[in-house]
Each structure stands twice: as structure tokens, then as C-alpha cells.
Amino acid sequence: MNEHTPHPESGGQPSRSDRIAAMLEEQILTGRFAPGSRLDEVSLAEEHRVSRTPIREAFQKLAQSGLVEHAPRRGVFVRQASPIEIMEMFEVMAEMEAVCGRLAALRSAEGAVDQLRTANAACRAALEAGDVDAYYVENGTFHHLIYAQSGNRFLEQEASRLHRRLKPYRRMQLFLRGRLAQSMGEHEAIVEAISRGDAAEASDLLRRHVAVQGEKFHHLLTQLRPDAAG
Amino acid sequence: MNEHTPHPESGGQPSRSDRIAAMLEEQILTGRFAPGSRLDEVSLAEEHRVSRTPIREAFQKLAQSGLVEHAPRRGVFVRQASPIEIMEMFEVMAEMEAVCGRLAALRSAEGAVDQLRTANAACRAALEAGDVDAYYVENGTFHHLIYAQSGNRFLEQEASRLHRRLKPYRRMQLFLRGRLAQSMGEHEAIVEAISRGDAAEASDLLRRHVAVQGEKFHHLLTQLRPDAAG
DNA sequence: GTCAACCTTCTTGTATACAATAAGTATGAA
DNA sequence: TTCATACTTATTGTATACAAGAAGGTTGAC
């Protein structure tokens, strides 16, 4: 499944507004548009050499995914999720990954564990190379594998959707001292649990693994803005 | 949260296209538009006395929620979810409700259990009156209460979203002999588990309670179309 | 000097005109 | 008769024109 089309038109080409929405999403997540800032229809239309119509369609898609907020008659604004809301999303992510892990342990097919080990090896290589960006990518691959191995396509899509939504907040934590190595160890324990078919253990480990991210995020917040603890 | 605005514009009025989307959704779920049928932009525009623009916006919202499918250059069609996909959604619903139940048992505030008992009493009254429609409504109230008592607003919204999506498939089962009484008993066990703060039990009971619906759905399917078992 | 009301201007929401493509139909050849 | 091809028609995608509302500035009164 494409990273940027939550509900792809089955088999068809992504529409123009899909591409624009994907681009805007990327630009929001990478910081070109700051939270709270307004997205201007006309300037974006000029930039993309289209009329306002496809831009407005793209805005709607972004609004549905929760990335921007549509204020009637005032425009669309990059949404600033509150710390509480972000913590809530991390909690849901933790629970969803726990479910994926449980189902994966129960159902994982031939070769599935090998895929996980391969992905994990790539994580370790990135870690040892000190390449944070590469670790980030390989880590994503690892988690998406588990979503897929749940054997439930719908769950896989929903988990991927939330994973993408949390992208900017997850990324912050990679720079916390020692977190990468710790994360790496957790990955290995998770793979072992799945390979043993130990559903309860896989579930618990994944829940903790992701919940820690929420806690780290909270920790970062309180350091930066002690009043914004949530 | 309004039943028909998945991502409400915070505090603002629902837009015209929101209202149209809600109306179309209702009409799809209640069978005015059969699965697979095409929604015509111009006739709907005439019917609602607007131009094609708001209709198209409504279509986009429906497409994002998965209710219709957008075939580029061909139109939007009422989506016929495959049996497999519906089963997958039921499984995810079961897991989400299990999570809600677990969190509710851990966190439920003063008076929360009373609310559940009240909702359950309404269910029982409907059951004893033999009023299937009323039971359906009160049952929905009961489940939404549990979503809310998870203490996680984001989870509450996601669970409500999926609940609504499964609406037409859940409704079928109410007419299965004895299912209502069985469901009622499960509700009571769930409330007791939550009132005891027994998170694991509440979680398991809810998972089973919802998973049974998926199984009943599957059962109905195989009776109707033995080849469509999934 | 300050506040309020009005007016200007900018932006969005909607309608409509136009362009492009897909489906259906008719025609002709094999 | 059947199949293929071209044409017609209908429908979507996009652009643009127009309407309506909100923000901000200006002017006037107190």
C-alpha cells in the first residue's frame, strides 16, 4: 500500500488531488508549514500550476486525515494536536500494535519470521553505523511487517494510517540518548516471541515498546514546556 | 460527537457538503442506493438544489470513510465490501472494544458503572418488550458508553467510526433467534467485570461479545451464499 | 485620544463553462 | 452474422466567474 493514499482508488491511478495531498502532507510533516499556519489556496494553486479546485480537494483529504483543520470561511490551518491528543494517539497505537503482534504470533506464515529478522538486521546495521535516518526507515519497515503479518488487511491499513499520523512525534525521540539501542533490544524480544508463537508475550512486548514512545514524548514535552504536560 | 461527522470542524457549523454527505450516508446504509450502484452527480445536485461542487465534496468524504469507491473518470459507486473485509472489520472492532473495556475497567470514574447499568436496563426493557429496533438503539448507547469510559477521546472516536461503518452488518443479526437474550447476558457480565475493575476479564468478554457478531455474520453469509464464505 | 461603526479588500464557497475521456452505438467489412 | 472501428454522447475533471462573508483599516464622533 502506498504511503500516501489511505484509501486508494482500487487499482486506479492516484488522482491529481491525491498527489497534491501527498505532497502537502509531506511538506507539513517535514516542517515547511508550521502548525497553526494557514494554507493559502491561490498561492498553492499557482505553485502547482492548477486551479483552486484540485487544491481544495487535497485540503479535504488532509482534513479527513486530521492533519489540517478546516475553519469555515476562514481557510485551512495546519493542525496543532494537543499534547493530550498525541498521548492518546500513542496509546491507541500501542494497543493496535499489541493486537497486530498477538495475531501475528498466532498466524504468521512460513517465512514471516525470516522477514522480521531481516528487517531487524537492517535496523541493527543502521544502529551500529550510527545512522539515525536509516534506523528510522528500517524501524518503519519492521513495524509495517508486523502489521501485515496480523493477517488482517483492514487492521494493517488502520495501523499504517495511525503510524503515519504519529510520524513527526516518533521521530523526535530517536535522538534521545540510548533509546535506539534499547528499542533494538525490544525488537529482538518481539521477534522471538512471535517465532515461538507466544501471542501474549508478543502482545505485551509490543504494547510496551510503543507505549514507551508516548512516555518519551511526554518526557520531552515536560522538559521543553513544563506547563504543557497534559 | 455527531453521528455523521467523523472529523468535525472543531466548534464550527457543519458545512453544506457535510450535511449532504451525512444524508447520502444514511441513504446508502438504509438501502436507497444498492451496493455497486453509481451515484450520479447531476441528478443529486438537482435533488439537493445545489451545483455539482458540494456534491463532489460530499462524495470525497464518503470515499474517505470507505462507503463509496471513486473510479477515476467513471464516477463513484456504492462500495460492496467483500465478506473477507467485513470479517476483518469485525475482528478489529472486537479488538478495539476489548481495549476500550480494559481501559474502562482500569479508569472508570465515579458514576460510570451506574451509567452502564442504566443503559443495560434500557436494553433489557427493549428485549422484554420484544422491540428489536429499541434494543438496537440502546445497545449502541451501551457500547458508546464503554468507548467513552476508556478515557481516551481519540480511541472513542475511532471506535465510534468503525462502529458506524459496521452498522448495516450488525443489524442483520438481531433477528437471529435467541441472539438478543444471549447478548443481554454478555452485557451484564461485562458491566460486572468493569465494576470489579477486572481489566482482563472485561477485555476478554468484550472481545468475545463482538467477535461473535462477526461469526454470526459469517454464518448468515454461508447460509445465503455457500460460495461466499470468505 | 479612544472607541465604534462603516467601508474596503481579501478569501472562501458556489455555480457554471469548458476540456478531456470513457462508454455506448452505429456502420462497414470479413 | 460477427467483429472491429469510428463516431456520438454522456459524464467526469478542471478552470474560471461570481457571490457572500470575514478581517482589517479608516474615518468620524464623543
Automatic annotation (TrEMBL), chains A, B:
GO molecular function, one term: DNA binding
InterPro entries tied to this protein: GntR_C, TF_FadR/GntR_C, Tscrpt_reg_HTH_GntR, WH-like_DNA-bd_sf, WH_DNA-bd_sf
Keyword terms, alphabetized: DNA-binding, Transcription, Transcription regulation
Positions of the HTH gntR-type domain: 14-81
A matching Pfam family: GntR
Keyword match Glycosyltransferase: no
Source organism superkingdom: Bacteria
PANTHER family on file: TRANSCRIPTIONAL REGULATOR, GNTR FAMILY (PTHR43537), TRANSCRIPTIONAL REGULATORY PROTEIN (PTHR43537:SF49)
Name the UniProt record assigns to this protein: GntR family transcriptional regulator
